[in-house]
Design a protein that fits this description.
The protein is α/β, with parallel strands linked by helices. It has 14 helices and 13 strands. The chain has three domains: 95 residues, Helix Hairpins; 121 residues, NAD(P)-binding Rossmann-like Domain (Rossmann fold), CATH 3.40.50; 80 residues, 2-Layer Sandwich (Alpha-Beta Plaits), CATH 3.30.70. The chain is 49% helix and 15% strand. The protein has an eight-stranded mixed sheet.
C-alpha cells in the first residue's frame, strides 16, 4: 500500500491536479453541507426501506437476504440492478418506485457535479483559478515591457511556466501563459499565482505615471511578505523612486528609461553599438547573455585561463565574474576564481554549462540596480539597502 501511494504522488503532484484540488476546496467551502448530508441520507434510507419491503414480501427473513436486497437496491439506483431479482407484482411496484425516486436524487447529484465542472471551466477562463505551478515565473502587471518579456521567455533555452497577475478582463498575454485576474497587492491573488514557490517574480508598471511606481512599491512589499525567499525584479518609471523600491526589498531594479538613454548616448558615440547590445540580450539569432555557475574544475584558474577554457570548451566569451554580490566586469588577468564564483558570458547556448541558481546569487543586504551610476559601488554593481 505504501509503494502504491508513493507511485501515485507524482501523478497527483502536477499543476492540473493541484488546480483541481484548489477549486474543489473552494467549492466545498460554498456547499450547504446539511443539504448534501440530507440527500445522501435520503438515498440510503430509501434503499434500506425498499430492501426491507422486498425481503418481507419475497425473501426469507434473514440478514443475508436483507443484504442481497440492499445490494440490489443500490445497483438499481445506479441503473445496474438485476430486473429478475423481484418476481411478484408487489416487488415490481417497489422496484418502479425505487427507480423513480432514485433517479430524481441521483439527477440532483449529477447536476451538482456538472455544475462544479462548468464552474471550474468558467473560473479558469475568467482568470479566477489557481496556477498550481512550481518553479515558474510570475509577472505582476502588464505593459509593453511585459509583452516583450513574454516573447523573450518563450524563446529562451530554459523554458519555464509563466503566470500573469493583472486586472484585465482577459489574458493579455494570450496562449501559453496562465492568467490570474486580480490585484498583485492582495495576498489571496498572490497565493492563487503560488508566488511562494516561484523561481522569480517580475513587477512592471501598468503605465508611465508616478502612481504606477507607488503601486508597484506596495506590490513588492506584498510579495516579500508572502514570498520572502523568491527573487523580485522590478521595472521603475522614475529613477527618484529607486530608494523606495530598495526599502521594499526588491532584489533587482531596472530603470528602463535611464538604460535606454544611456544606450542611445553610447550608440551616438559608437555607431552600431545598439544593434550589437540588442542582439546579445535578445533570444534571437546569434549569441546571448548567460549567467552561469562555474564548475568546480575551474576553481583556482586565473581570469585569463578561465576565459580561454570557456572559449575552447563552451564557445563562450567571459564578460564578468561575480563574488559575494560584487560583479567585476573585465576582470584583471591575475584574478583567481574561488568556490562560489559565477560568471556572465556571451554564448550561442548554455551547452554543458548550468544556469546560476539565483538563491545564492543575491548577497543578503544588497540590491542590484540596472541604471548608470557613478562611484565605486556602481562599478561593483551593487548598492546597499537603506
Amino acid at each position: 500500500m505504501g509503494r502504491f501511494r508513493a507511485s501515485l504522488l507524482p501523478l497527483l503532484d502536477v499543476p492540473l491536479m493541484r488546480r483541481v484540488a484548489w477549486h474543489a476546496k473552494r467549492i466545498r467551502g460554498g456547499l450547504d453541507r446539511r443539504f448534501v448530508l440530507s440527500l445522501a441520507g435520503g438515498i440510503l434510507v430509501l434503499v434500506a426501506i425498499a430492501a426491507l419491503l422486498i425481503t418481507v414480501v419475497e425473501k426469507s427473513w434473514t440478514f443475508e437476504s436483507f443484504g442481497s436486497s440492499f445490494y440490489w437496491g443500490v445497483t438499481t439506483i445506479f441503473g445496474q440492478g438485476d430486473s429478475t431479482f423481484v418476481k411478484s407484482p408487489a416487488g415490481w411496484l417497489i422496484s418502479w418506485l425505487l427507480i423513480l425516486f432514485g433517479v430524481a436524487m441521483l439527477g440532483t447529484i449529477t447536476g451538482a457535479l456538472v455544475a462544479a465542472v462548468i464552474d471550474f471551466l468558467l473560473k479558469e477562463g475568467q482568470g479566477m483559478g489557481a496556477a498550481g505551478y512550481r518553479d515558474h515565473i510570475v509577472v505582476c502587471g502588464w505593459n509593453a515591457t511585459a509583452r516583450d518579456l513574454i516573447l523573450e521567455l518563450r524563446g529562451d533555452e530554459y523554458r519555464k511556466r509563466i503566470v500573469i497577475i493583472h486586472s484585465a478582463d482577459r489574458n493579455p498575454a494570450g496562449e501559453h501563459t496562465y492568467y490570474v485576474k486580480g490585484d498583485p497587492t492582495e495576498v489571496a491573488d498572490l497565493r492563487r499565482a503560488n508566488v511562494a514557490e516561484a523561481s522569480v517574480i517580475v513587477v512592471v508598471p501598468t503605465d508611465d505615471s508616478n502612481e504606477a511606481d507607488m503601486r508597484d512599491i506596495l506590490t513588492v512589499m506584498a510579495l516579500k511578505a508572502e514570498a520572502p525567499d523568491v527573487r523580485v525584479v522590478a521595472e521603475v518609471n522614475n529613477a527618484r523612486h529607486v530608494e523606495h523600491f530598495q526599502r521594499a526589498h526588491a532584489d533587482e531594479i531596472l530603470v528602463t528609461s535611464t538604460l535606454a538613454s544611456h544606450l542611445l548616448a553610447r550608440s551616438a558615440l559608437y555607431p552600431g553599438l545598439a544593434e550589437v547590445v540588442t542582439d546579445i540580450v535578445s533570444g534571437g539569432e546569434g549569441s546571448e547573455l548567460y549567467r552561469v555557475a562555474l564548475p568546480a574544475a575551474y576553481v583556482g584558474l586565473s581570469a585569463n585561463d578561465l576565459s580561454a577554457r570557456l572559449r575552447v570548451e563552451h564557445r563562450a566569451t567571459l564578460l564578468s565574474i561575480s563574488r559575494d554580490g560584487t560583479t567585476i566586469t573585465n576582470p584583471p588577468a591575475e584574478y583567481i576564481v574561488q568556490p562560489g564564483d559565477d560568471a556572465l558570458v556571451v554564448a550561442e547556448s548554455l551547452g554543458e554549462l548550468a544556469p546560476l541558481n539565483m538563491e545564492r546569487a543575491m548577497s543578503p543586504g544588497h540590491v542590484r540596480i540596472a541604471m548608470p551610476h557613478k562611484g565605486k559601488e556602481a562599478r561593483e554593481g551593487k548598492i546597499a539597502r537603506a
